[in-house]
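User: I'm writing a short report section on ligand binding and want a predicted complex to refer to. Could you take this sequence and pseudouridine-5'-monophosphate and write out the structure as tokens? A short remark afterwards would be nice.
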Amino acid sequence: MIRTSDEVAEALGAGRAVVALESTVLAHGLPRPRNLQVGLGMEQRVRDAGAVPATVGVLGGVPRVGLSRDEVERMAMADGVLKLSTRDLPVPVARGSDGATTVAATMWLAHRAGVQVFATGGIGGVHRGEDRDVSADITELGRTPMLVVCAGAKSVLDLPATREALETAGVLLVGYGTNELPAFYSPRSGIPVDVRVDDAAQAAALWRAHRDLGLPGAMLLCVPPPEAHALAADEVDGAIAQALEGARAAGIRGKEVTPFLLRAVAEATGGRSLEANVGLLLNNAAVAASVAVALAEGAR
Ligand code: PSU
Ligand code: MN
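Assistant: Sure. The structure tokens for the complex follow:
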């Protein structure tokens, strides 16, 4: 049912490092044509660090792990690509259509293909002032084993509430060279992580222990956004307040909320939040690859 590309299948078979990448960030989280550059750029960062990238999505009704360049382009540039959380996966499969996978759906498919490490930007979580809008990413993180490399949760969310929800779901927050949960566009949130690691080998050791214990669910490796493009917390706060007000006024609901907010914050910051988002996505891909390489080396 899930089709793994030849390159990814060979790498997994040989015990080499593989990093899963999601496609919703491309189809719905970034503007064209920048999204395509970022998708290909993340794949390149993974390769540069010695691992094989596996971008995940649904094409023509087939769940895919590992896409060609043209297929990444189709995800990024085609109109009407569905946004798929795990529960949505049957829809494009039944209809034979295309869909981009969120963190949740990417984890579901990548795990079943045998991938253990996944790089994204920011996970979904609890929306501000809408504490019944909780991303299904949290549910999936609680039940599917995956080392998820991210810059924390997107700061358009309620970060303290998201942290609590992750704790309830049984997800360990690991800071990569930091004691704090990053705030996506900026490095600090004031919210502590559960444990800190300072290099890829330490991260790999934690993940190996998690698997050896047979624990369900994911571990979040939280990487601060690179300094060069990070924004100051007060600048982001104003932009987010404006974006939330815009979403309320426009009556945005459900799966449209996150893409709307990301776009509105980018507008309110004159595109600077977009640069921060791109910078952290590329950086997370490189960190994930280094951890995947450390894991593969440890298994030999
Ligand atoms: N990180 C980004 N940009 C994004 C997303 C994450 O930098 O667009 C996407 C991910 O696919 C994540 C989704 O799973 O947003 C969460 O959407 P929701 O809040 O509707 O569950
Ligand atoms: Mn939601």
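A remark for your report: The chain has one domain: 3-298. The first helix runs from residue 6 to 13.
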